[in-house]
Design a protein that fits this description.
Length: 78
């Protein structure tokens, strides 16, 4: 699911024109087509791994969420 196709309401994410909390894979890309963000959501919140990249392709953030809470501290990996 394209991240831009989601709507945030009350701290949770929904598909546009839906009342159901979103669960599934999400991606967000720069205009160049490179990934900006890739992760998973469950019941409208981030779940499992979330990775973000700078425009130059380097990783800017990696965090792991469990039960919709940040489980590991975010830091770029080598």
């Amino acid at each position: 699911m394209d991240y831009n196709s989601l709507l945030q309401r009350g701290g949770s994410y929904y598909e546009i024109n839906s009342e159901k909390l979103f669960s599934g894979s999400i991606i967000k890309k720069y205009e160049s087509g490179q990934y900006s963000m890739k992760g998973e959501m469950k019941d409208g919140k981030f779940d499992r791994d979330l990775t973000k990249w700078y425009k130059n392709g380097q990783i800017s953030y990696i965090g792991t969420y469990k039960d919709c809470l940040l489980y590991t501290s975010p830091s770029p990996r080598d």
